[in-house]
Amino acid sequence: MKILSIRFLLAALFSSSFCIAQTPLINTPSVSPDGKQLAFNFQGDIWTSTIDGQNVKRLTVHEAHDTNPMWSHDGASIAFESDRYGNSDIYMVSANGGLPKRITYHSTNDYITDYTKDDTIIFQTRRDFAQVEREYEIHSVSDQGGTPSRLMNSLGFDAKLSPNGKFIAFVKGYCRITREAYRGSANRDIWLYNIAKDSYMQLTTYDGNDFYPHWGDDATIYFQSSQSGKYNIHKLKIDANGQKVGQIEAVTSFKDMGIFSFSVSANGKDMAMVQGDKLFVLNASSNTPKEVKLNIGSDYRFDPIEHKTYTNQIEEVALSPNGKQTALVIRGELFLRSTDKDVKKTVNVSKSAYRDRMPTWLNDSTLVFVSDRDGQNDLYLLKSDDPKESDLLKTLKYKVVRLTSAKEGESDPIISPNGKSIVYKRGKGQLIVSKIDANGKLSNETVLLDGWDTPGGVSWSPDSKWLAYSLSDLDFNDEVYIHKADNSQKPVNISMHPKADRSPIWSADGKKLVFTSNRNNGDYDVWFTWLNKSDWEKTPQDW
């Protein structure tokens, strides 16, 4: 099969801003020990500035992603993470800039969580129990390099050593921190490790996420939590034995959007936090965040326009009814290409800044696809806008028409074999069939399903009268169903097995249904079932 080669222009939106950016999208801000400087990630590099956002300097310039800077206690160096060799390792760089030094070399990812006053770097990694546990292991290494070692037996995240060296605050739980509204048993909580007693104690019991602990002093721990609604900074107090005392208090009170990340200086007083495209600093004595305007003026990090030739990474393929053209999806763009191997031409027919995908052919000169160009995923029609040339591969003019505008978005449209009906999904659980004419006008909408689960692997029967799909039951087991397209009959479960059955496809004569199932030793194989009893009862001689 011939490898497809496709060329188009990519606008590098974030790296092409040759201007002073007043509200750059930075992350992981870190305050220097003296509270006078900031280090942060921007455009995949490490930058520094004064605490008021002035005198901005870029410390690293590398095509890899450099992030999560942390200051040494003397303020002379900054440790950070980078994937320069394929996975995240820890590096050191002078606070004045220079050539970074690599500290860790393992093939797994290492994420820095603390830089202690005795020049030890604490980091989380998955080296020993990657096949057993989901949570990370806590390791440490000298900032001069050397062999890392396990710091504590417990698994967890975000380990921070107390200023007096007696405790380690860390996090247990594995819910994604992007789930700000999550409440449940997978939530993250703050725990405390007593080094002398080799004992552990849970400090927070909120059923949402508590994470990113930072020490203010030997008795104060700041952390990020959604206890007050959105992600805000909270604090708790402990006594000399590590027991929590008093109530947890909210330090910040953002209500429209939670913070993304924050840090506390080694002085225990100065904090920095990011909320969307806004950077704030806060002194513990005031509890009033102050917005900082970063004035970043920089040259292009990479060329603002990049020419790319794609020989792979084709996300979707749709063959035209006559088999002469193929619609391809690459990076949210629709392309057309002839199936004739001698025709080299490939045409971008969408050319938009939006995400265009899920193409299906209405006829040999008309595409239906999904796009978010009007704010949500809707169905659109694409055809030639040249009355003298209807061939999408030859015309120079295209017309895009919006077909749906419901409150919920649509996805996964599939035109029936006779070209007169279309099935698509709306929202999370609706499966809808509509009539569609040659101009793309929809009519006679019929809702086949409206439930909690989204049907998958939807396919039409050859006679355009039935649909097959997979759907989960209340035990989250996928079953294969066939469903009359006009909804005149209830769906019929044709797989009926406790293992997962998915991706049904009709035989050309409509007598068999082929699907994948892991019912044999847990491996997915191809299975089929007869749809008519008389066919199933036939012997090889009868055929």
Description:
There is one protein chain. It is built from 1 helix and 47 strands. It has 543 residues and is an all-beta fold. Among the domains are: 1-18 and 310-403, 6 Propeller (Neuraminidase); 443-543, Neuraminidase (6 Propeller). The strands form 13 sheets. A 4-stranded antiparallel sheet has the order 3-4-5-6, with no helix packed on it. A 4-stranded antiparallel sheet has the order 7-8-9-10, with no helix packed on it. Strands 11-12-13-14 form a 4-stranded antiparallel sheet, with no helix packed on it. The protein starts with 5 loop residues before the first strand and ends in a 6-residue tail after the last helix.
Topology:
Layout: E1 6-11, E2 20-21, E3 27-31, E4 37-42, E5 45-50, E6 57-58, E7 66-71, E8 77-82, E9 89-94, E10 101-102, E11 110-115, E12 120-125, E13 137-142, E14 149-155, E15 157-161, E16 167-172, E17 189-194, E18 199-202, E19 210-217, E20 220-225, E21 232-238, E22 244-250, E23 261-264, E24 270-275, E25 278-283, E26 290-292, E27 296-297, E28 305-310, E29 316-319, E30 325-330, E31 333-338, E32 346-348, E33 356-363, E34 366-371, E35 378-384, E36 398-402, E37 410-415, E38 421-426, E39 430-436, E40 442-450, E41 456-460, E42 466-472, E43 478-484, E44 492-493, E45 501-506, E46 512-520, E47 523-530, H1 533-537
Antiparallel strand pairs: 1-28, 2-27, 3-4, 4-5, 5-6, 7-8, 8-9, 9-10, 11-12, 12-13, 13-14, 15-16, 16-17, 17-18, 19-20, 20-21, 21-22, 23-24, 24-25, 25-26, 29-30, 30-31, 31-32, 33-34, 34-35, 35-36, 37-38, 38-39, 39-40, 41-42, 42-43, 43-44, 45-46, 46-47
